[in-house]
Design a protein that fits this description.
Layout lengths: L4 E7 L3 H4 L6 H19 L3 E7 L9 H5 L24 E5 L5 H9 L2 E9 L1 H15 L4 E10 L3 H13 L3 E2 L1
Parallel strand pairs: 1-2, 1-4, 2-3, 4-5, 5-6
């Protein structure tokens, strides 16, 4: 199958990572760039999809909750919602209980995409997890991460994740 389309993956641009329980100044700073990149992707005919970190009320009893005991992105709460104005009607949202989405990776592998670009948060947790899943599920898919549209849990974590992805043949743009 000839692949020609481009997939833009917007990772976890949710209130709890922007201005909520785990919000950071870096995430707030990238929001206008993310919004502009999503707008440009639509104008260019790219397929835009979103991931959404999704936890249930029992979050603190999960392995992640034991290691990161900050309740966040609980289904149905404001913190779980994507930032206003990002997702358009009909665009796909992949709810994920873990860092990466195998459903997203399967979607990308089965689609007619020549490349996938990731933007969003957190570079050092969910962006890297999804980038590597895309490489694993679709080894010939060109995967890139737009560094200026990503924010890590910390600035140092952001830089470390970019270096790790570069080593795994993810293009950093």
């Amino acid at each position: 199958m000839k692949r020609a389309g481009k997939l833009l993956v917007v990772v976890d641009m949710q209130h709890d990572f922007i201005d909520g329980a785990l919000g950071t100044p870096e995430a707030r700073r990238i929001l206008p760039r993310v919004t502009e990149r999503v707008r440009a992707a639509r104008l260019n005919g790219e397929t835009v999809v979103f991931t959404r970190d999704t936890h249930e009320e029992d979050y603190l009893s999960t392995q992640e909750g034991e290691r990161l005991p900050v309740v966040h992105c609980v289904r149905g709460t404001r913190g779980w919602q994507l930032a206003e104005g990002l997702a358009a009607e009909g665009e796909r949202v992949f709810d994920k209980p873990a860092f990466g989405s195998t459903e997203l990776a399967k979607f990308a592998a089965e689609g007619a995409f020549a490349e996938a670009e990731l933007i969003g948060v957190c570079t050092d947790i969910c962006v890297i997890s999804n980038a590597l899943l895309l490489k694993a599920f679709a080894p010939e898919l060109r995967v890139s991460v737009r560094a200026d549209c990503c924010a890590g849990a910390t600035p140092a974590g952001h830089e470390t994740a970019l270096a790790a992805m570069r080593a795994c043949q993810v293009d950093i743009v």
